[in-house]
Sequence to fold (180 residues):
Amino acid sequence: MSEENIVYIGSKPIMNYCIAIITSLQEKGDTVTVKARGRSISTAVDVVEVTKNRFLNDLTIEDIEIGTEQLESTDGRIRSVSSISITVKK
Amino acid sequence: MSEENIVYIGSKPIMNYCIAIITSLQEKGDTVTVKARGRSISTAVDVVEVTKNRFLNDLTIEDIEIGTEQLESTDGRIRSVSSISITVKK
Fold:
């Protein structure tokens, strides 16, 4: 992939991320990778499904990867958190 | 797949599901599909990652699918909920 086109999922409303994906596909290229960690993983799946079912019916899911990332918490301890990357293509 | 070997993720502690996966792989066959809906999707990813990182390092992720299911809620209305299926192989 030449230019990585990524939407990170946090705690904003789902629609914000749907719009980010649609805008990104219009302006930056044919694929977008949606990334999330921890509890936001469920939201990432919602975002991709809503974008596909309501806005871009031609959207295809190219790849889904899950993994574990090491994060340093505020008290300096390292904790593991699950992650997901969903790559979609218009 | 001849016999479908499925672990459904709900609100029990993560370790319960890890044990279910390990037992299933010992007794029923080489692959298990881990399924979850809605908020439990994040837990499903945690369960697979913990099983792989702590108990079965050889576990490979064969396939990940996401989708939308229609559920009837208690008031009779239909609502959409996101789902995930993660197939792992020992």
Notes: The interface with chain A takes residues 38-42, 45-46, 48-49, 53, 61, 64-68, 80, 82-84, 86 of chain B (CB under 8 Å). The radius of gyration of chain B is 14 Å. The beta strands of chain B are 6-8, 31-37, 60-72, 78-89.
